[in-house]
Design goal:
- The chain has 310 residues and is of the alpha+beta class.
- It contains 9 helices and 10 strands.
- A 6-stranded antiparallel beta sheet has the order 8-7-6-5-9-10. A 4-stranded antiparallel beta sheet has the order 1-2-3-4.
- Helix 7 runs antiparallel to helix 8.
- The longest helix has 26 residues, at 214-239.
């Protein structure tokens, strides 16, 4: 650029015999023009030297917190990790500065190929148990399906009454301010988070009813079946099984089954009071019931990063 102005000035000086006053003005305008060119116009030379900020995965962002480290089990051989910052070096290797709870720091490096596998490991974390081959484990030494943490649980189905509206779904997560439902029969997946999740503020909740889970149903059916079998045995004893016709035997079996089913239904209704949480849009009532609700949620203290900013 300076050579350009120098050649330009010499050419102008050769054509015209400028007075000294005009020469000084000319130098001044050249400097102004150079300033504008460098600061206003885009300069591809400088633009090429600026590196874009590297993000390992949109699920963790520029920094990895302790919850994300635990959920993804990013460091299988490290415990009590407080946080991680990272960047790419000039050879495209990923360098991580890991802060531990004991106040010490350590550095871990992933190769260029390992970075891509780590990215897949994080992005596809929820389906790795069923699709192990999507990650090349040889490029991630120390990692493996056996070392992964799976915090997702089945979750109870609840009915949340809000004025004249009733929302139903699995308990996804319980916070101090909201109840989050998962309205899908499929397991939690980050790509469908915004589609199947429903956040309900405490101020809108009148009551919550929890559907009887499979264990309770089995217990009720077993109890009813046991009573029905006992009645059937009594019937055989009273009427003498040798004198019973096939028709009467079927009556006894059917009667025992009906009684068993009825007692199972009665057990379900009897335990409903223990599965009903009265909130009345009151925060204190909700916080009293939160421990019982949280035990039934899909995620508790460790959860996907998508559920962090609620």
């Amino acid at each position: 650029m300076n050579e350009f102005f120098e050649v330009y000035a010499k050419s102008m000086h050769s054509k015209f015999n400028w007075p000294d006053k005009f020469k000084n003005q000319m130098v001044f305008f050249q400097l102004v023009f150079l300033f504008i060119l460098l600061n206003v116009c885009p300069n591809p030379v400088f633009a090429q030297n600026e590196k874009e900020e590297f993000i390992l995965s949109p699920r963790v962002g520029l920094e990895i917190d302790s919850n994300e480290v635990e959920y993804f089990n990013i460091f299988p051989d490290l415990n009590n990790v407080k946080g991680v910052i990272y960047k790419l070096d000039n050879f495209m290797n990923l360098r991580m500065l890991v802060s531990l709870a004991n106040g010490k720091d350590t550095t871990i490096t992933f190769s260029k190929l390992g970075v891509e596998e780590l990215r897949t490991y994080i992005n596809k974390h929820e389906i790795l148990a069923d699709s192990q081959n999507i990650v090349n484990w040889d490029l991630l030494p120390g990692y493996g399906i056996s070392k992964m943490n799976f915090f997702e649980r089945h979750g109870s189905i609840v009915f949340v009454h809000c004025d004249s509206v009733v929302y139903s779904g699995k308990l996804l997560r319980v916070t101090d301010n909201e109840l989050i439902l998962w309205a899908s029969t499929q397991p939690f997946r980050p790509e469908t988070w915004n589609v199947f999740s429903k956040k309900i503020p405490i101020e809108k909740i009148d009551k919550i009813e929890r559907k009887q889970d499979l264990t309770g149903k089995i217990f009720g059916i077993t109890l009813g079946a046991g009573i029905g079998a006992a009645l059937l045995n009594i019937g055989f004893s009273v009427f003498n099984s040798q004198n019973l016709s096939v028709e009467n035997t079927l009556y006894l079996v059917a009667g025992g089954g009906v009684i068993g089913a009825g007692l199972g239904w009665f057990y379900d209704k009897l335990t409903l009071s223990r599965r009903k949480y009265r909130i009345f849009k009151n925060r204190d009532n909700f916080l009293k019931n939160r421990p019982n609700l949280e035990k039934r949620a899909i995620f508790t203290s460790i959860y996907p990063p998508e559920l962090k900013n609620l």
